[in-house]
Amino acid sequence: MKPRRQRMLTVGLIIVGVTLAVGLALQAFQENMLFFYSPTQVLAGEPPEGRKFRLGGLVEEGSVSRQPGELKISFIVADLENTLPVTYEGVLPDLFREGQGVVAHGYLQPDGSFSAEEVLAKHDENYMAPEVAELLAEQGHPVDGQPEKSVTN
Amino acid sequence: MIPELGQLCTVIALCLAGVQTIFPLVGAHRNQASWMAVARPAAAGHFVFLALGFGFLTYSFIINDFSVLIVASTSNSALPLLYRVAAVWGGHEGSLMLWVLLLAVWTIAVTVSSRSLPDELSSRIIGVMGFISVGLLLYILSVSNPFLRLFPIPMDGNDLNPLLQDPAMAIHPPMLYTGYVGFSVAFAYAIAAMLGGQVDRQWARWVRPWTTAAWMFLTVGIALGSWWAYYELGWGGWWFWDPVENASFMPWLIGTALIHSLAVTEKRDLFKGSTLLLAIGAFSLSLLGTFLVRSGVLVSVHAFASDPSRGVFILSLLVIFIGGALAIYAWRAPGLDRNAGFKMVSRESFLLVNNILLSIATGLILLGTLYPLVLDAMNMGKISVGKPYFDTVFIIPMLPLVLAAGFGMHAAWKSADAAQLVRRLRWPAGVALVSGIALTALAWGTGPVLTYVGVAAGIWLVLASLRDPVMWLLGKGPRLTASMIGMQLAHAGVGLFVVGITVTSTYSIETDQSVRLGETVQIADYAVTFNNLQQIEGANYTALRADIDISQDGEKIAHLNPEKRIYRVQTMPMTEAGIDATLGRDLFVALGEDLGDNAWSLRIQYKPMIRFIWLGCLVMALGGLIAIGDRRYRTAVQTEKIPVKSGTAARPA
């Protein structure tokens, strides 16, 4: 292949590849972008309907309840102004505790409760999800010493 | 006293790194032999003093000197010795010390083995590596000092995060960093060659083993991290597309592209621009990865921004290293490439496609990793892009890559005969297609089309890779060099990896169940019995240990003891999964929490072929190791005819 054609081919391949990649990436981005909302924002109707999102806040003290022997659990996620009931069925992370920060992925139900598919608490007892820590700080109640540091690898 | 000595040694190492930068670089520029001669002794001194500094720091951890801030924050007197040493790199400051120490080790390796190189080139390489060390050491000594004292002295330390108290996690950071830092050698070679204005086949031959070595360490490091996440985090996942993981995966992808680009530069004196750019890219992403993980920016963009000293320093370092390298590239690289042609169907074309696809995948992962951070920093909302995004944007470029790789390995340089290529590979292709579909359907039942495609593609790559080694062993094919065997083995590793991922992501069974003591639950073919639960005492933790039997067709096949541990110092609960591993499948049980009424939540998973994921990585790394051992890297300067004939002639890797 002549150098000129070779360059054309290279450039052509790159353009086609990058265009395809960007198109697919934008689409995948649109579909998989998860927004973060607090209970207050949820009650104000901010999350788009029928879309998965992340709910964050504190697990309200005394709100965790389950039937003995049942996997299904319900608890209340609160920011400092509002609360939202959450249901989940599955093994909870080690650091899930009342009074601690939590982030749940899931959908808003017609009855106004939040059905979680995934519940997250990070790898460190001092750790609070940054979204939750900032949310509380914005509402005027910073959590002591949070977030401290990441502990990963 | 000891930590002050460590700090003093580190300061001396910084001075020597300065000497190691200035004299060789200026000497090479002015062609003064006496100045260039400073390179090796300075590098040796730099290494010795860094090793001493790191040694003193480690000693503080071993003797539990809690007057040192980082010892108090990441270690504890009850911690076993191995983990007290591992705690050195358990935090930000210590891990950067490890980083520069490894940089010094690589530099020493370069000084020892670069004696046959022209003085000008070797001096520039050592000088550039010295410059990197200067930047990092300035950062360490000014804003990330590991030798700081703490007053009042605490009675005991805060302990190492229990998740990190694990053998795989103790060696994961050194492996990963050896890989990251190893790319600095290719980077230094690239800068040195651009400064000297000479990028040729001989240069590429010199860089190749270094790049492959760094890539090999990174491969093992990432695999260790993935394996650790699987058995230690208690979720049964092996890859989460977490920013921390992406940070190590991006340099790996670009490093892989670099290895392939270097092959073209060595054999055909082509792709010089992309080789240089990829060398800069691999190391830049390594730096970015180190800082993403270690700077705290991932935890909170705002906390990061509110303590700007580290952030500003890090960003300036990134700008100086990456921007400087790109500026040199813009200045020197044009005009390097010569105009040699190659046909549409040729090894070069396949490698070009390979590099483009790997770069696209890296770009999309970078987008998904950084975009949420940028958006958050600009207060435009908190979003996250999860696993589905990364899965999608990764599979799209990778599937054609795996399919093409099988052909690419067999295509001749310059011009390949497409018909002959198909003839050569019709058996591997046919067998892969049939066995991929049949095996999958018979072993695990029906699945989506993509699963059959994935398994067939993986088997295809394994067979296409092993065709030549098998022919050689049977005495029917030409003799293979170490670098060819290594290359083929590494590709076979990718094939195994693809089979593992495909099967495990389609056919895994994952369930969370409430199980009463004495109760048996059925998961697919497996009966899982929860016998009992007892309290046990570990060295620095207390645990509840479950006793679980798994039987299949009435026959007992596994006995598992998943634990729920509470570490005494950090009072942090941790799940230690029980895993029964065979080559074909893993059975995974993690103990959840007490549900009352004598019932516990159990996470029970069946993971077919998951071992192939890590096995594939090890085979890739082994391939790299064999390729490095090729004789031609050890002979000084060679002149070699490039075989360009298509067909059955020997095709060097």
Mind explaining what this structure looks like?
The complex is a heterodimer of chains A (153) and B (653). Chain A is α/β, with parallel strands linked by helices and 153 residues long. Helices cover 29% and strands 27% of the residues of chain A. Chain A contains three helices and six strands; from the N terminus they run αβαβββββα. Mean pLDDT of chain A is 79; it is low at 123-127 and 143-153. Chain B is an alpha+beta fold and 653 residues long. Helix content of chain B is 62%, strand content 12%. Chain B has 20 helices and eleven strands. In chain B, the strands form two sheets. In chain B, strands 3, 4, 5, 6, 7 and 8 form a six-stranded antiparallel sheet that branches. Chain B has a four-stranded antiparallel sheet with strand order 2-11-10-9, covered by helices on one side. At the A-B interface, α1, β1 and α3 of A face α8, α12, α14, β1 and α15 of B.
Tally of discrete structural domains of chain B: 4
What's the helix count of chain B? 20
End-to-end separation of chain A:
49 Å
Q: How large a portion of the residues of chain B is in β-strands, by DSSP E?
A: 5-15%
Low-confidence stretches of chain A: 123-127, 143-153
Structural class of chain A: alpha/beta
Number of distinct helices of chain A: 3
Calculate Rg of chain B over CA atoms: 26 Å
The H-and-E topology of chain A, N to C, reads as: HEHEEEEEH
Specify the oligomeric state: heterodimer
The outline of chain B comes out as: globular
Element layout with pairings:
The complex is a heterodimer of chains A (153) and B (653).
Chain A: H1 3-32, E1 33-37, H2 39-43, E2 53-59, E3 72-78, E4 83-89, E5 101-108, E6 114-120, H3 130-138
Parallel strand pairs in A: 1-2, 4-6
Antiparallel strand pairs in A: 2-3, 2-5, 3-4, 5-6
Chain B: H1 2-30, H2 33-36, H3 39-62, H4 69-74, H5 81-86, H6 92-113, H7 119-143, H8 167-196, H9 201-232, H10 243-268, H11 272-294, H12 301-306, H13 308-332, H14 347-377, E1 383-385, H15 387-408, H16 418-424, H17 426-444, H18 449-473, H19 482-507, E2 509-516, E3 520-523, E4 526-537, E5 541-552, E6 555-560, E7 563-567, E8 572-576, E9 578-581, E10 585-596, E11 599-608, H20 611-628
Antiparallel strand pairs in B: 2-11, 3-4, 4-5, 5-6, 5-7, 7-8, 9-10, 10-11
